[in-house]
Amino acid sequence: MTDEYLPKTHQKTVLLNRSTVVPKSRTSLYNVSTSVSRLSGSGFFDPSVYSKMSNAGISDFRGNREKEKREMQGLNERLASYIEKVRFLEAQNKRLEAENEALRNRKQEDWKPIRDMYEGELNQCRELLKQMSTEKGVNEGRLAGMQDEIRALKEL
């Protein structure tokens, strides 16, 4: 293109150099630099327009940066609470596993007195059942005999 088609009043070139520096630390800092150089060439806007556009871009960038920072802080807090909860649950799980293992390793002798007591009661119940069965048989025999006597007396 030739210069005859371009406006002759403001022949300048505006260069915007933006560089971003992100350190490896937790909080990132952004270094934004702008430079305006007037070189030969053509421009469509007045330098103040570029300055306003650049400042608007920087403020947008800073606003986005602050928003991202707040989001990251919120996410970091959520992550910290999840990690804390996981650690608590792991400790509780470890305690329950130790308790379970202790109960499993308990010797049979600990249960022997209880087992002996219930086995004694069970044997007593079995003896009582035998006695009652015997009594029932005897009583059923007597009942049958008495019913025969009643029938015989009714026939007389």
TrEMBL record:
Gene Ontology BP, a term: intermediate filament organization
InterPro entries xref list: IF_rod_dom (IPR039008), Intermediate_filament (IPR050405)
Organism domain of life: Eukaryota
Pfam family, one: Filament
Residues in coiled coil: 58-135
Ranges of residues in domain IF rod: 68-156
GO CC field: cytoplasm; intermediate filament
KW Coiled coil (keyword) present: yes
A GO term, aspect molecular function: structural constituent of cytoskeleton
The entry's keywords: Coiled coil, Intermediate filament
UniProt name for this protein: IF rod domain-containing protein
Organism expressing this protein natively: Pomacea canaliculata (Golden apple snail)
